[in-house]
Amino acid sequence: MSMLTVRNLCKSFGETKAVDNVSFDVQDGEMLCLLGPSGCGKTTLLMTLSGFLSPDDGTIEMDGSDVTKVAPEKRPTSLVFQNYALFPHLTVFENIEFGLRTHRVPRSQIKDRVDQMLHIVELEGKGGRSIHQLSGGQQQRVALARALVMKPKVLLLDEPLSNLDAKLRVETRQQIRQIQQSVGITCIFVTHDQEEALTMADRIAVMNRGKIIQFASPRDIYYAPTNHFVADFIGKSNFFEGSYDADRSTYTLNSGKVIEVDGSHVAPLGEGKPIFAIRPEFLKACKAKEVPQSAANRLAATIAQVTFLGELTLYVAMSDTGEPIRFTGYGDWQQFHEGDTIEVYWDRSVGQILAR
Ligand SMILES: Nc1ncnc2c1ncn2[C@@H]1O[C@H](COP(=O)(O)OP(=O)(O)OP(=O)(O)O)[C@@H](O)[C@H]1O
Ligand SMILES: [Mg+2]
């Protein structure tokens, strides 16, 4: 069931189209991550959903009701900000109960609801503490509890983890995902961290310049990006320029080298120029004589750069025809040195033709 339905939403600031004709659905209990570069319109989209900004055009439905013109405090949403926006002079308990008091929830219910929240965010026994006696991660969980205690239908989070250090970020994102799933709440989570989006989301909306470029599961976003922007923004890819021949299912690199491609791995090209994209982890490499006969595609190359990262090693090789190629080695599999002459090879089942 769709909990949130957005149709043709537009919001401009002067000449800037911050949200440009955006439409999508979020299912009940789903975690949607909005991912995109700085300034692409993530916060503006979230603010129009929460009602703090009114759209120029388009509609927003929540749980079957049109809320496009409904005031923020009357919408079934709660918003969690990057800086938590907690009240420093109030205790943890007082921060969490704040919204319930302003909504005149009977006193008898308040304690039970706050205690339940303290349990959910694993801050039992800390209700009496003041905010500055908490770690950053704990403060973020208070902000989450303060939002959840209002029983919103849609929880909106704007880069809630960006003030935390790397290790705490990973811990806290796991906690938020666990809480979101156990409460079963529909959630929109804004981030510009791709790892955060890939690990937390049921689906990801990749945004650029006010538009949603792709809306899909994390796996599809990573393995089946629909255009160059998504493939370049999420993870690492090799891109080879050239021209595509649909009849022959071949792609001719600018150097003249012809490679075989899988016709089913061609994204809609529209007006865009075709570009061949392949993830580094799909490329295999070995000494020239050792390449299996069955390999559909191969490029002779020389190792130019070796970056050892512990569990894996990143290589940049330069092909004899001038294409830089990035690939990965794991453990003692695919280990080379700078200057080694190798061949890089791959099956036709991997790699994609995308629109640029
Ligand atoms: N109140 C405003 N007045 C004028 N322009 C604005 C306003 N708010 C946002 N913008 C512009 O709208 C565009 C989208 O901004 P927005 O804050 O939504 O981006 P964002 O994706 O959240 O970026 P970030 O990742 O940096 O938070 C930007 O070009 C921004 O400069
Ligand atoms: Mg923002």
Summarize this entry quickly:
By secondary structure, this protein is an alpha+beta fold.
Describe the structure.
24% of the residues lie in helices and 35% in strands. With 356 residues, the chain is an alpha+beta fold. It has a six-stranded mixed sheet with strand order 6-7-8-3-9-10, sandwiched between helices. A five-stranded antiparallel sheet has the order 13-12-11-14-20, with no helix packed on it. Helix 2 crosses helix 3 and helix 2 runs parallel beside helix 4. The longest helix is centred in the middle third of the chain and has 18 residues. The protein binds adenosine-5'-triphosphate and magnesium ion. The site of adenosine-5'-triphosphate (ATP) has 12 residues, from strand 2 and helix 1.
Describe the protein's topology.
Layout: E1 2-13, E2 16-27, E3 31-35, H1 42-50, E4 57-62, E5 65-66, E6 77-80, H2 92-102, H3 107-120, H4 136-148, E7 154-158, H5 166-183, E8 186-191, H6 194-200, E9 203-208, E10 211-216, H7 218-223, H8 228-233, E11 238-245, E12 250-253, E13 258-260, E14 274-278, E15 284-286, E16 297-308, E17 312-319, E18 324-330, E19 341-346, E20 352-355
Parallel strand pairs: 3-8, 3-9, 6-7, 7-8
Antiparallel strand pairs: 1-2, 1-4, 4-5, 9-10, 11-12, 11-14, 12-13, 14-20, 15-19, 16-17, 16-19, 17-18
Helix pairs in contact: 2-3, 2-4, 3-4, 4-5
The structure holds adenosine-5'-triphosphate and magnesium ion.
Residues 13, 16, 18, 36, 38-44, 192 line the site of adenosine-5'-triphosphate.
